[in-house]
Amino acid sequence: MPPAVEQAMISKTLRELFLAANRVLVLTGAGVSAESGVPTFRGGGQSAVWKGLPFEVISSAAMLERDLPAVWEWFNYRRNLLVQLRPNAAHTTIASWQDRFSDLSLVTQNIDGLHQAAGSRDVIELHGNVWRARCFDCDARYSLDDLSRDEAVPSCFDCGGNLRPDVVLFGEMLPPGAFERAADAAQRCELCFIVGTSAVVYPAASIPEIARGNGAYLVEVNPERTQLSDLCDEVLMGKAGEVLPLLRR
Ligand code: OAD
User: What is the pLDDT of residues 153-210, one digit of tens each?
Assistant: First the structure.
């Protein structure tokens, strides 16, 4: 059982650094959205199986080739769940930091768009966004709001090609430039928060390692320890929506 979340859990060093820092990086994972009702992937999440297909099968590059309509159906199902959900105190707290630090970078592994819904701008999305589609042929990107929901596989307005969800599937590379931007931010940050990620999926999990290698102070926010915990200067054990609002500037 993690201890009760309270001001006293934050060290003097972190309080002072939080007041003085200019360059801050926040890396988030599924746990930041858990209090909004988004299931996590590991540790009892419910996103494991859909219509008998394991998550890593239906969400794979191979499935795009085998059955594109099924991939759309699966992402439509996920969007129907997500559309009812709202940002929580963790998302809104992180969004408020962008006006408090001169250089705040927010890097997320999440595809749910809840950081943007809370007001965060320029989010570095390592795994794409479930609310966007992109064309296989010409790479044009669309907001789902602009597409018809009637077609099993929507078509590109520019070239007529098939569209696909603009998310990173198993067996795919990260979007061009996303990791490079995140690694850049990791190299220059003084303070790095790692929030709600089990830190087992690479290359995302290497971002805190880069920050650490460049002298940043690492703070993990998670109700459980992870394989990054030992690398961190401070582990704030608790829910992101309860812990992050305790940090004041
Ligand atoms: P995981 O499901 O692996 O880990 C979620 C983490 O959030 C766990 O360490 C939990 O302890 C923690 N957690 C749960 N509730 C929390 C709360 N209220 N506040 C803070 N932390 C909480 O999710 P990710 O690390 O994001 O990739 O998973 C990484 C990637 O694995 C995903 O982006 C996805 C998946 O494969 C793709 O789909 C490409």
Answer: 999 999 999 999 999 999 999 999 999 999 999 999 999 999 999 999 999 999 999 9
CA 47/CA 68 separation, integer angstroms: 19
Local structure of 43: helix, strand or coil? coil
Identify whether 127 is a catalytic site residue.
Answer: yes
Residues 224/234, Cβ–Cβ less than 8 Å: no
Domains of the chain, CATH where assigned:
3-38+86-127+173-248 (3.40.50.1220), 43-84+132-167 (3.30.1600.10)
Token pair for 163? 């569209």
User: For a pocket test of ligand 1, which of 36, 40, 232 has the largest count of ligand atoms closer than 8 A to its C-beta?
Assistant: 40
Which amino acid residue places its CA nearest to atom 16 of ligand 1? 31
User: Is the C-beta atom of 78 inside 6 A of ligand 1?
Assistant: no
pTM: 0.95
For residue 142, give the nearest of 171, 123, 165 by alpha carbon: 165
